[in-house]
Amino acid sequence: MAPGGSALKDVLVSNSMAMDYDVKMAKADTNSKPTKSGGAGGVGKYGIHSSNGVYELLECPVCTNLMYPPIHQCPNGHTLCSNCKIRVQNLCPTCHYELGNIRCLALEKVAESLEVPCRYQSLGCHDIFPYYSKLKHEQHCRFRPYNCPYAGSECSVTGDIQTLVSHLKDDHKVDMHDGCTFNHRYVKANPHEVENATWMLTVFNCFGRQFCLHFEAFHLGMAPVYMTFLRFMGDENEAKKFSYSLEVGAHGRKLMWQGIPRSIRDSHRKVRDSQDGLIIPRNLALYFSGGGGGDRQELKLRVTGRIWKEE
């Protein structure tokens, strides 16, 4: 659920390839406790082995991550990273002496001469980096795991694309559909009660890739609006190979949007706040719902769309 929203029980009715299907609105999954993905798609510590033991010396004894300056040591020479120095309340976790502010300059100097693999080596990154360049690379490594794109609740699961596709299907029960065109009808009995509401995510398999269709209601400033947009399950450079269009309308009038799907590297909230999608004012959405009146008390908004690959 988007921030400030509440659990909703309304229904999204969709039509794809001339077939109707029902989709419940997204809500927080209070009965399940998602965990970090394991295996090839999960995030964990990827050990670095060395015959001379230098890497082991650079491993923090508390968090077991590699240490970066400032590296602290106690009077007896035991070392730990700056983050863990705060966690252990300035007491050495090995001998319990007070740490003070002693830096292990020798170990920091040794680290400068090392080259180490990316922590995502087991996920496909085989590059080697100078010790102090490793962290910067990992922040942008194309092999780093993706966050779960589900927008109905905060989900901590990460993994590769196939891991997340299975997770969305099995744990979040999202709709999975094949095809590059879609025709959705979003339904709400009393749309004036919907504030910061997020409908259930829909995933499309198209051109051998996956795309996430989002739809939600929120306030843009003081104006109540609906917004729909597409995200690509992959990196930004791959997302740019595709385009999509969205359309809503009735009574001889229509709104259209054409754009490039955003990568799921960009959070759902970031895309929404950037207004990178089709935005429909509530009064116009109700007008498109039927009856020709902006005061209609029921939302039945049909959104059609198409995904294509740029040559």
Largest sheet: 7 strands, mixed
Helix content: 10-25%
Oligomerization status of the protein chains: single chain
**Number of helical runs?**
8
Radius of gyration: 25 Å
Average residue-wise pLDDT: 81
- The share of residues in extended strands comes to 25-35%
Tell me the span between the first and last alpha carbons.
Answer: 37 Å
Q: Give a count of the beta strands, DSSP E runs of length 2 or more.
A: 19
Globally, the shape reads elongated
Please state the structural category: alpha+beta
Q: Which H/E pattern describes the elements?
A: EEHEEHHEEHEEHEEEEEEHEEEHEHE
Low-confidence stretches: 1-51
Which key phrases capture this entry?
alpha+beta, six-stranded antiparallel β-sheet, 8 helices, 311 residues
Q: What is this structure's SSE topology?
A:
Elements: E1 11-16, E2 19-24, H1 54-57, E3 71-73, E4 79-81, H2 82-87, H3 105-112, E5 115-117, E6 128-130, H4 134-140, E7 146-147, E8 158-159, H5 161-170, E9 175-178, E10 181-188, E11 197-198, E12 202-206, E13 209-220, E14 223-232, H6 236-239, E15 242-250, E16 253-259, E17 262-263, H7 268-273, E18 278-281, H8 282-288, E19 299-309
Parallel strand pairs: 9-12, 14-17
Antiparallel strand pairs: 1-2, 1-10, 3-4, 5-6, 7-8, 10-19, 11-13, 12-13, 13-14, 14-18, 15-16, 15-19
